[in-house]
Amino acid sequence: MESRQEQAEKRGRAERLKQARKQAGKGSYRKLATNYGWNENTYKSHESGANGFTVTDARRYAKVFKVSFEWLYFGTGEMHDTDTAPPKVDDIPLISFVSAGQLTDQTEVTDLDHYPTVAAIDLPQGKWIALRVEGDSMNKISPPDSVIFVNLSDRRLVPNACYVVADERGAATYKRYRPNDDPPFQPASYHDVPPPAMNGTVRVIGRVRRTVLDV
């Protein structure tokens, strides 16, 4: 479920996309679809705000309409600003903790394309997922409703680093690794939160490398 912040961002992007199309004078939706190979209904859903569009879509639209990508996607600067040297922006699949628990067998992780995405700037090399934090067990690092970025390719345990792990039932949790504690995956909370009760072998899904909270 989208947060209010995400809904507001989607509406803002849709409105800027409409402004960009109108000022470009490129013709009707059908003409755009014909000239640029777009799906007419998909584009309409992006402009109406019914569906959000990705970083890749935004770069394509910005190029055609001759507007600033940073303005179109992030709402920064002015419509016709010259974009700075573009950062590396990736569309990371945003999944649930329930779905994360199914990723314990890394060899089976092949296709995450059907999930909604969240943009991330300059992530290092890796295979990434994003998760929205629920609860306050890690609020010293990641407050509730923040988004964490998890590298599925990085499962090497480092003391005091943070990981998403799952037990044999596939129940996933986000905790800090404390090898001298029992259990070794512990909360990092301002509240008195007990460590997770995990059944059987604990598998590392990936290391948490970034946490983001919109304000």
Automatic annotation (TrEMBL):
InterPro entries assigned: Cro/C1-type_HTH, Lambda_DNA-bd_dom_sf, LexA/Signal_pep-like_sf, Peptidase_S24_S26A/B/C
Residues in HTH cro/C1-type domain copies: 17-72
Disordered: annotated segments: 1-28
UniProt-listed SMART domains: HTH_XRE (SM00530)
Taxonomic source organism: Martelella mangrovi
Compositional bias (Basic and acidic residues): 1-18
Residue stretches in coiled coil: none
Name of the molecule in the record: Phage repressor protein C with HTH and peptisase S24 domain
